[in-house]
Amino acid sequence: MGLANTQGGATQQAMYIAIEGTIGVGKTTLAQRLSQSLNARLLLEKPEANPFLPRFYRDPARVALPTQLTFLMQRAGQVEELQQGDLFEQNWVADFLFDKDRLFAELTLSRVDFELYLRVFERLAMDVPQPDCVIHLQAPLPVLLHRIEQRGRDYERGIDPEYLASLSDAYGRLFVAPRGARLIEVDTESLDLLGDESHYELLLDALAGEAPRQRLAAGSWV
């Protein structure tokens, strides 16, 4: 699919874009800006609505299963908007990929709990629309920790740096193998998508193209 034309002229097919990356990398802020640029419907995660999350960051073993199941049900409810909307006429931008919920679960749940979780996940994932393009935002661990500290969310203050590093590694593995969706990887340490208009234009150009996989970083466009 191509981007729906929002400036008049010939109508193009719409695009469903999912933005992914580790906690603190800037998914939500970019999703909000892209939704404005593309006149797109916006789907945002609501981590603050998960009552188990603050306790999870303090003591993950104790509340890992209810934390993951709560997120799973929340995301399933959100993607119902995609199923009910018109994916062929309207651009959509989400700050999450539904499949990422399983990634988090594999890192946090015991084997027995994960088997239970997986049965629920597979049932809910059966009819979930897949994005046309995934934007994978990347940054090294010190940058992520600095951004998390700067935004000052109380429930994130207890994040274990080792857990954050494991998430980064897991995201890297998730996107190694070819996927059905186009993939745009962005080095957010060297590219400022919010503060530098030329960097943001690089991303818009990549979205308008058709390359199955691209990497955007300062001084290069691969």
The averaged pLDDT comes out at: 86
CATH topology type: Rossmann fold
CATH architecture: 3-Layer(aba) Sandwich
* Rg estimate, integer Å: 17 Å
Strand proportion, as a percent range, falls in 5-15%
What shape does the CA trace take? globular
What is the H-and-E element order?
A: EHEHHEHHEHHEHEE
The figure for the number of domains is 1
Q: How many beta strands in the DSSP annotation? A: 7
- State the secondary-structure class: alpha/beta
CATH superfamily: P-loop containing nucleotide triphosphate hydrolases
Largest sheet entry:
7 strands, mixed
The main sheet orders its strands as 2-3-1-4-5-6-7
Stretches where pLDDT is under 50 for at least 5 consecutive residues are 5-11
Total helices: the number is 8
CATH class: Alpha Beta
* Percent helix: 40-55%
Measured distance between first and last alpha carbons: 21 Å
